[in-house]
Specification:
single chain, alpha/beta, five-stranded parallel beta sheet, four-stranded antiparallel beta sheet
Length: 247
């Protein structure tokens, strides 16, 4: 796998002595995972009926690694029934940190395709309000499809500009998740196309958009509410620097 030179320079500056260890991971296949939807099936029952090896991950109680040899898992009957969501295991950690409780009002501001939204809903156990927003209309349809497949009844799906939504719903939510659109450096092992689409300029452009979203998101929070900001990229430009620049 040939990584962009600018990306390697950036990571070497960031990781220093750990750089070679980091680069070596690209010589092995990515981890694959799924998350059990306990709104539809208990963990115990799922393990009995799925007929595949599951290895627990450290990121969420119902998140598991699966073998890379398993093919077409999205065609499995239990997937169509909403018993599980195919999700990279590390992606489940943002919602674990958000620590959603039943009865809370929670906003997922960049929600499609729905992995984190459906995880939030599972934590709510049908009590409270999940508001999942996606600004791109075609992706909002994908979000809606996954919300329905996973059997979630206490959700609102919207296709709205972030600034308009957050100001009109000012002070409504106990918790807000901003899993912001990013340059996708964390996707390189899984999707070679992400490498072709990456550039330093694109990363800087993403950071500008991320900051705009984050500065709007705060208005949707109640007083003393909690906000989690996450990306699937390594760039400090899109992570720490966005946090430091927020208003």
């Amino acid at each position: 796998m040939e990584l962009p030179i600018d990306f390697k320079i950036e990571m070497k500056n960031l990781l220093k002595s750990d750089f070679n260890k980091f680069i070596s991971c690209y010589n092995s296949p990515p981890y694959r995972g799924l998350r059990v939807n306990t709104l539809k099936v208990s963990l115990e029952k799922f393990k009995k009926i799925i007929n595949m090896q599951l290895s627990p991950t450290p990121f969420a109680d119902n998140s598991f690694y699966i073998s890379n040899e398993i093919q077409k898992i999205g065609s499995h009957p239990l997937h169509h029934a909403g018993a599980f969501y195919v999700q990279e295991s590390s992606a489940s950690f943002a919602v674990t940190v958000l620590d959603v409780k039943p009865g809370e009002k929670v906003l997922d501001l960049c929600a499609s395709p729905g992995g984190k939204s459906t995880q939030i809903a599972e934590k709510m156990c049908g009590a409270g309000l999940l508001w999942a927003n996606e600004v791109i209309k075609s992706r909002a349809h994908t979000l809606l499809s996954n919300i329905e497949r996973m059997g979630i009844r206490n959700a609102v799906i919207s296709n709205c500009k972030v600034d308009i939504l957050c100001h009109r719903l000012s002070g409504l939510f106990d918790k807000v998740l901003v899993d912001a659109p990013c340059s996708g450096e964390g996707m390189f092992r899984k999707n070679p196309q992400a490498i072709d689409e990456w550039s330093k300029e694109h990363s800087i452009s993403c950071a500008k958009r991320q900051l705009e979203i984050l500065n709007c998101a705060k208005f949707a929070l109640k007083e003393n509410g909690e906000l989690v900001y996450s990306t699937c990229t390594f760039s400090s430009e899109e992570n720490e620097k966005v946090i430091f620049k927020r208003k």
